[in-house]
Fold:
Amino acid sequence: MNLTRSVESKAATGFSPVPFATRRKFFLLAMALPAVAYVIALGVFPLVKGMWYSLYEYNLLKPARTHFVGIDNYINLLADADFRGAIANTVIFTVFSVAIELVFGFVIALALWRDDRFNRVCLTLILVPVTITPLVVGLIFKGLLLADYGMVGYYLAQWGITDPRGLFATPSTALATLIFIDIWEWTPLVALILLAGLKALPGDLLEAAAVDGATAWRTFRSITLPLMLPAVMLALTLRTIDAFRVFDSVFVTTGGGPGNSTNTLMVYAVKEGLSFFNIGKASAISNIALLCVAIIAICFILMIRHFDKKANGR
Amino acid sequence: MAQAADKPLAGITLNLASMNDQFSAVLAQIAPEFKEATGAEIKVDIMDYGSLLTKTTADFVAHTAGYDLITMDIVWAGQFAANGYTIDLNDLMKRDAKELDAADIYPKLTEALGNYKGKQVAYPFAGYANVLAYRKDLFDAAGLKAPETMEDLVAAAYKLTDPAKKQYGFVANGQKGPAVAQDWMQYNAEMGGAILDKDGKPALNSEANIKSLTVYRDLFKKAAPPGAADYDWGGREESFRQGIAATMQTWSVGAPGYYDPKTSKVVGKVDVALAPRGKGLPKIYGIGGWGLAINADAKDKQKEAAWTFIKWVTSPKIQKEMNMLGAGSYIRKSTVTDKELNAKYPFLPVLNEVFENGDGDYRPRIPEYPEIQDILGTAVNSVLVGTVEPKAALDAAQEAAAKLF
Structure:
């Protein structure tokens, strides 16, 4: 029945027998195909391969020893105090740097909210750290903070403010110093994201609040903050995932030391993968890091939903 | 046509992966001379230690043959041999024995810089001697003689330390990683310790090792510049050139720098002497440095050209030329005893003594070396910054190292 009609319609109009809706579906699929292929080639394939490798004892330098070990790599890692230390360091680093960056970023964004020439110049200037690669930032701070030759570190040690060994060589301050560097570098980016959020706020709402005589704090708490939530969540997600993967600045300043006090997950993974070519173990570490990032992302999504419900009653 | 005859390697390009040491700039500088002589072009890719190891290993395991020639650190010999990354040079050496004048090369260097259990995985190229650089002026003023034993060195280090005057008696690498591991292994060997036992298995927590690590830590605590726990080779050399450290054990390759007023505040005040050793212990002077290896994946024509380059660059004439240019890298007796070079670098007799009596195995040249170095690098650094006691650190290190075998 259907068939006859489409044949008829072809005869009548000269178009192909496939209905428009189907053709549209095929067309859209074809358009999506390159993207799908791209994701499979660069996302799914390495991911699966990485999971596969993590089930092997697989060291490029000892090819003869390669064999399937199941989840031994993971069990060994969890039993490894260095690895647990690396997770703890990574979490401490992420929590403190992102929290402080958000607070500072918000303050800076509020300060630069009004659109005038001074603020525009300031914004350009504070963005300078973001443009420098983390590796170079690490080298700059290392040069500044060395206890014996650093332009800053020398005086800090001399005046007894820091341990004479220097900030990077003292276990109690090394991680805090790295957090400070991260804050120095990335607070401007957070400020920029939040400033964009502020600029997009509906002006009439704020005006209405002002007309109603709301205090600045009340306006901030009841209007600005809830409306800023998407921007805050964006900054939070971006920075958390990035901070969790911190590598460059740690690598060039402390190399994970002193001892293991600044060893992070990525430093550990790079050492295993690129210094010892221990692909199995390095894959396992990366997979665990990936899992952590996924859990964090899910938590954020749930948080956004929760706040959204509260704010919009949906 | 005539050109092809006298330039047999015309048209060939050899890629050389080189460590960024004093010799690398000189290598790049003299490469045109090789082209002049043979027609082959040498491209020198200069990298830092970590990149060199990563890039060349990636080249080996993927069989991409990106590099034809590789400078090989003495401690990589075990890995290179175990995996067959580079060609065995024994046959070529036998074939061209006359041309090589191998008797002029210190046998210890031929052994240490590329021989692993009879297999020549690299050809000796840049020999470094572990030496003691010390401030003669400070020693004279304090009425001290050049330290001959480790006990002398420790006593002198304490005596010459005066933080109020920014004067410290001792400096060594303290930074986590290869830096501290390598320096401590040197001191450890000199104080009678060893990394491996007689069967070649790790023995990191032996009595002798614990004792030497305790001495090393105390030196850092009381006699080294405060920031030394974070020094690598660069920081260590800098502290000596700036005149804040009175003694430093170092590789001979850095010594030309103390005589250069542009970088050194201690010109004319420094002497380079044999490294001290523990009282009553045999002479074990540390040998380090680089060999030149040929990638096993390279095409035959490239291999032959690479071998020609090795023969050329290690020849007496070019060795002298390189060292006149400040390469600081010696392998030949004739170069070390050369009058002109001795006039320029008065410490060369010390090198002769070290290369005759040296030990290239105080850092074990076994396939597991990189991991052992990493384990020690973290353990020793933890001790230096005071988070662990020497015994506990070495016990843990031993446990980790034993798993590798």
In short: Residues 3-11 of chain A have pLDDT under 50 and may be disordered. The beta strands of chain A are 56-57, 67-68.
